[in-house]
Amino acid sequence: MEDALAAIDHVAARVTAAAATGLAGGAAYATLRGFPLFKTSVNASVSCALVGTACFGMERVAHGLLRQSSALLDTSTDDEGPSPSLVYASHALGGFCGGGVVGFLFGGKQLAGAFLLTPLMLGIGTIEQALEEYRTERLQQLLEEREGEWGQK
User: Fold this and answer.
1) Alpha carbon of 48 to those of 45, 83, 150: distances in Å?
2) What is the per-residue pLDDT for 101?
3) Which of 51, 78, 128, 147 is deepest in the core (most CB within 10 A)?
4) Is 54 helix (H, G, I), strand (E, B) or coil?
């Protein structure tokens, strides 16, 4: 149950970011073209939220399936978090499957959506991996500083 809630939280955070990006992009586009600001911004925001839901939902499904299959094949216990190859593979599958769904819904062209969104999802996976590495390094630095302060007292 906790894994499901964590997956929902993961998707919700990214869909919220996609919707906010769509809102800002829609406002910029409406201002540039002279379209109604509110309507254009909300339409772009909802479209980005739908794309984010499809891609990140599929990414979480792919992540769970790949993690389970790798756990069956690999007997070593590694609690350091997901490996980079698992992150990239789940983002690639999420972009391909989610892009296919989006391509079908928005234009009837599944492969066009898949080929458009797969590189975008891989870019997002790269950013997520870099942020995770930064967070781990920073946490390690803070723990070392704390140990140094305790050693001086």
Assistant:
1) 5, 28, 48
2) 94
3) 51
4) helix
pTM of the complete model: 0.82
- Give every CB contact of residue 102 below 8 A, 6+ residues apart in sequence: 50, 51, 54, 55, 113, 117
CA dist 70 and 5 (Å) reads 22
Contacts of range 39-46, beta carbons closer than 8 Å, 24 or more positions apart? 45/19, 45/20, 46/19, 46/22
77 φ/ψ angles, rounded to the nearest 5 degrees = -100, 120
148 pLDDT exceeds 80?
Answer: no
pLDDT of residue 107: 85
How much is the average pLDDT of 121-140? 94
Q: Per-residue pLDDT averaged across 32-50, rounded?
A: 95
Q: How many CB atoms lie within 10 A of CB 49?
A: 19
Instruction: Say how far residue 11 (Cα) sits from the centre of its chain.
Output: 7
Q: Is the Cβ–Cβ distance between 122 and 88 less than 8 Å?
A: yes
Could you give the 3-state DSSP secondary structure of residue 118? helix
Quickly state the pLDDT bin for 78 (edges 50, 70, 90).
low
